[in-house]
Amino acid sequence: MKNCTTIFNQLLNLISIGKFQKLVDKHNGDKYVKKFKTFHHFIALLYGQITEKDSLRDIQYPLNLEKSNLQFFSLPEIKKSTLADANKNRDYKIFEDLFYEILQKTVELTPNHKFKFKNPLYSIDSTTIKLCLNVFDWAKFRTAKGAIKLHTKLNHSGNIPDFLVITDGKCSDIKAAKTYFTFSPDSIVVMDKGYIDYKWLYSLTQKKVFFVTRAKENMVYEVTGQHEFFEGSGVISDEEITLTGQTAQKAYPERIRMVKYCDIKTKKVYTFITNNFKLAAKTIADIYKDRWKVELFFKWIKQNLKIKSFWGTSENAVMCQIWVAMIFYLLVSFIKFQTKSTLSILEFTRIIRATLFQKVALINLLSLRFNDIWKIRDNITSNQLKLAF
Fold first, then answer.
1. What is the distance between the alpha carbons of residues 177 and 174, in angstroms, rounded to a whole number?
2. Which has the least CB within 10 A, 50, 205, 217, 226?
3. Residue 377 has pLDDT above 80, yes or no
4. Number of structural domains in the chain
5. Longest dimension (CA), the chain
6. Mean per-residue pLDDT for 348-361?
7. 269 is in which domain, residue-wise?
8. Are residue 32 and residue 94 in the same domain, yes or no?
């Protein structure tokens, strides 16, 4: 039995070279390129993400020292200037498309969300990534500030991003939702008040997509019916309403369900509106509470991925870095779901970072906690985890 290759090699082997090359050809990624191919570029960016490097030079030197551990990929000597040029000129859409290739396989393995209903459940939200306008002059946000927005459709089955779009900082949440987000019939989408546009909500209803959101304080309505609910569940009322404001009524002419709920711990009262009339009122409240997962997702990626400081100043360089960061998140998630590991994404990420060039089977890492990494030794012989896209 042969010794394992390094953890980094095993991660790279999850990517189908054939499918990757099709994406490269689609976007002319290797046109006029002699040595530093797109996959070499991907290796460098993924390495920088995993090891949280602060600059291209920090990627260049240690990765060149590890060339012997990456012989299978024919990695040439990396130069800072070559890597900078690739970040600036090689189309980031190659990595964006790769993200969705990996996502297709990852979705097949995700565990179900925690609710009893079988409808797909999604949260939509955005997070702002601040940039210095003097350096990133293409990312205009306000007069003296720069920023981009990461708009996300989070799948509650596995808590993975089902769709991502990166816009300038001025793009509103509702504009992004109307422009980019799509949902299959019977899906449930949960969102905050920033997405309330009655015409758009009505378009979801017409497409048989359910929504759950909080009502605006100035919503004008008339109660047209009552629903029964269980006492002691925190639900205060469960009513059917119609909007009576002239503009709102024209935009959303059908009935809406309104649920008022008091959080038992905080005693705060929330008012939710939805077009789902079948689920229990408490379930509607719990669905909105579960929206917090998208906030946790944003917090996690900002704390654990390299998406707040960048290795290049061009728009293309920033996009390359963000999409490779999200690819790393998917790769770790894929392994976790494939192996049914009890490790958290954070634990597994920390272990991979600490053992990146150790020659041990990925599957052997899944039984470890971070404090047990010392148990790993080079040249451990074991079956490698067989995963492939």
1. 5
2. 217
3. no
4. 2
5. 75
6. 89
7. 207-278
8. yes
